[in-house]
């Protein structure tokens, strides 16, 4: 009987379950992390792929360079420079098959079994999934002092290999890191020579307020490139154009680029040149910017609908985050409530949510849950929150 | 200074170098493994993507299931059953981002550090690249007896986790495994409970003769599925349609499917549904079959041109394989010749080849090289072989 690799002892199929939860047509799903499909620019995507395949089949349908096509890398580098990372050049940019692959590449390139990763819990489930095959350990970033600490002083272990953050509208909490926290994090990374992963899938989805500077722009000393600072940045068109393009990117310090490219070609040889040229076309012709703007308008309404419904419906003792952007609200239930119990009862009431404990690598908070507000219309959100509140209230009454 | 993971101590950038070798416009490249770009059905691909994106944007542009879209999985299962693997159902099929990702998935799902892989050398470089991050060991399949042996009796180690083969037109040698060898291999795998990987990227590219039965059809006992035998099969549209679709698949025993799907979602969440639906459309409308037939016609001519040129030009003491299909001829130089030396001198004569030693995991033969015959027209092949023969002859004269 074939035995799976040891890392499966710590694996789960949470992502698979989440992606499937919304499939039942009679269930309102607040469980996924899916964009609103009504935003997808189908005709523009059709035109872009057709244009590329027809005008340059020999290049767009062939294998491409492992690091990605040069014009897309140059365009991303120019965007990064414009946003303050002044020394980034095309050489620093590596195109990935979705930004999930970027996380896989980082783990595969940097981690030996037992190496540690520093992070704030709860965190992105897909990152934990990406790194599990490398069998890492985890440590919480200690924010209690003047500057964040990556390694507990009581710990005999070495520094973590890298620290992972989602500074904008973190999945699952929706929280945004302040500018002061960003500066402190970069200073600590430079002091301890620790790589910072700045995962930024939701950056374009800000519905109010002003975005603090990115970690990479704080870390970048400017000047002539290629960039060689302490931050790896990951981006994607999944939230601004369409997930199915599977086009993401990493902005990588020069000293790590070679290793990441070797890793990348082992994983899938190259990301589709056809899709990369189509994504480039969709960015250059303004379709991405326009889709992104429509997303902000739509998601702002849905976020507001969710916050209003929570305010109106939730029983006392339930609290939640008020995200300035992104896709998620994080709900904390009264102490002692088990969100898995709520999950089951909510499913009976035909509402899907995600129990919060799956987003932890170390110390799960069992009285938490994640709600998504991007994938269903506002009236449906209100209906779902009402049902959910009923479930939570009923549970509280039963417990009393 | 950030240290890369330990597996980089054994890594090389051979694939990257090979993919770039052909880029210099004044060099004739026999080095790559690229299809002829003039075969790519650009207009049909344009139509397929446009049709899918326009007619079903909500599904084709969204995230999809980690295992792939059901209709493509069902179509591949039906093809496998037609080719003799009678118990294969859609449930056994996992869509991958190119068949390279299938190899990565197998390594990630089955290998712990130090686990061994059995194979015949020389072998596919991309497979070695895919498995290197898992830090495996290697063992040669012993074919000296009545039945192949996966584990040398002198060896204290356990059985290999799996055995890897390219039964049809092996990269890099072009050789095809006989039916008797296939039967013996499957019997040995069943006896020792070892998984066999049947990597079949070139199966459709047969230019003469009859294909022996696939390993999976020999291993499959038929009957009601899902299939749960000893063979994992991998296929791709890269050689029959276009590499840039990055659509491959694995046919997987039922007991391994769950582990492979968990692995897959960690790597890139899902393969693009847009591309999968487009590939399905291109298969269903006959474009893939037609492209494949045009490839066979074109590549037969190019293979014959290469074999004729080798016959006419090569000095005594040089031998080569005569592949019935695929993309490569394997050349053995006189004992003592270093193919890296030939590689350098050939580059000076503006011809690119691949020194054979990069295709070995254990005991490299330094007097070997791989020639590709699919990517350049027959007159150019003849010119390249003539230049190469001159280099080899000159080298022999200098050595004498």
Automatic annotation (TrEMBL), chains A, B:
One Gene Ontology term of the molecular function aspect: transaminase activity
Matches recorded under InterPro entries: Aminotransferase_I/II_large (IPR004839), Class-I_PLP-dep_aminotransf (IPR050859), PyrdxlP-dep_Trfase (IPR015424), PyrdxlP-dep_Trfase_major (IPR015421), PyrdxlP-dep_Trfase_small (IPR015422)
Keywords on record: Aminotransferase, Pyridoxal phosphate, Transferase
Aminotransferase class I/classII large domain residues: 43-388
Gene Ontology annotations of biological process type: alpha-amino acid metabolic process
SUPFAM superfamilies documented for this protein: PLP-dependent transferases
Cofactor(s) listed: pyridoxal 5'-phosphate
Family matches, as CDD domains: AAT_like
Keyword Ribonucleoprotein attached: no
UniProt keyword Transferase, yes or no: yes
PANTHER family documented for this protein: AMINOTRANSFERASE, KYNURENINE_ALPHA-AMINOADIPATE AMINOTRANSFERASE, MITOCHONDRIAL
Protein name (database record): PLP-dependent aminotransferase family protein
Native organism: Hwanghaeella grinnelliae
